[in-house]
Amino acid sequence: MMRVVIEPGHGGKDPGAVGPNGLCERDVITEVSHFLASKGGDGIEYILKRRTAFPSLAALFAWMSRFKPDVILSLHCDSAAATHASAIVWCYDPDKDRYCRSALLADTILAGLCSHIGGPTRVLTAPYLRRRPDGSTYMLLPGVLRGRALRASVLVELGPMHPRMAEVEWQSRAACGVDAGLRRWVKQEEV
Ligand SMILES: [Zn+2]
To answer: Residues with Cβ within 5 Å of ion ligand 1?
Structure first.
């Protein structure tokens, strides 16, 4: 059984990016996360916790570590001002083996998203610590989880905020795309 922790990037009082029509990243990600969590079975167990606020990184790591996840999927959307057309998957890890597996997972998730919500899509790699324009930092997951069962960790940006992201059909398809990509990667891992 592959244990996958879904980390909704925002929740509760933390709205994340806000689109031009008032649509919040938090609300899109919450729905996509629930659709994704409902797709467990057939060798994959999804674990999702609703976020109530922006937790401290330590609290977030402690929560995720409890489950000894094989995979961590962080879900986000970008601000509407983002210049890329569609999904981006970040993978980052100081551990070389895990970095390679994460990069493969990023590829298969992008392919899944491409076939479910359209492309173009691309993979970016980044250091595991990323800085926001305001100077604050976020996403330090793998370094803290080093030494645990974690096999791969990626951050999925589903694309710049767009009104269609409010549609249940889009949210469901996005979740299907991530799930399809993850399952393809799991098959490769098992070979
Ligand atoms: Zn975000």
So the answer is: 9, 16, 76
